[in-house]
Amino acid sequence: MRYGLQLYTVRDLAKKDLKATLKKVKEMGFEYVQWSGMPDTPAEEIKSVLNEAGLKAVSAHISVEDFEKDFDSQLSFWKTVGVSDVAPGGMMSDCRSDPEAWLRGCARLDNLGARLRLQGLRLSYHNHDWELKSFPGQTASKLEVLLQSTCPDNLYAEFDLAWLYIGGANPADWLKKYQKRCPVIHMKDAVIQRGITGRRYFFVPLGKGELNWEEIIPACKTANVEWCIYEQDSFQGDIFEEINISLEFLKKWLS
Fold this sequence. Notes:
Layout: E1 2-6, H1 11-16, H2 18-28, E2 32-35, H3 43-53, E3 56-61, H4 64-69, H5 71-81, E4 85-87, H6 99-118, E5 122-126, H7 142-148, E6 156-158, H8 161-166, H9 171-177, E7 184-187, E8 189-195, E9 198-204, H10 213-222, E10 227-230, H11 239-254
Parallel strand pairs: 1-2, 1-10, 2-3, 3-4, 4-5, 5-6, 7-10
Antiparallel strand pairs: 8-9
């Protein structure tokens, strides 16, 4: 398994100075990244700034709607960037209201994944915690319905491990259940504070939260995960100190 940085982690810095941010990412020790949350940039320029920094984008978050409007243009864009994997950040907004709408979204994702597969790209779905809930009257979660309603060769699962945990699931169980269907995952750690009035969660560096990595890492290997993409949505301390803690974790556990 190889690792990289989800650039959404440094999105605020990149908005101020994209080139300097990418240079810093490389200096910290990353070689691979996922393109997401970055300033709106032409494909050729993305490729250029990554090359200048000595980085390679192996995956990206994309808009399903943009592909549906102009498939060829979007395909050319991401092939120019050079990624092998693409994923939306969640279900399309017009497919969330009820079970029927959800199934329409599943069909759209399956269709797009089939078209991308023929062009050498893999489509995955990135989850949050809310997909672990079910529609009224259903027992299967929204995420289970999605994965059961689509062809494994057309739609993969970009499991976000922290969001699975926050949603009440055991990430290792999901990795084991969907072996060979999660080539790219988001490595993320979290702490949940539980109280009388409810619960709050915080994102923390890898190894500093509540996720059971001694169980998760072997499950990743069993599931044939190819890319462990570290992501941290927010920080409690210095951003670069916390990223470095996570980087050392990745080096230790994935070596």
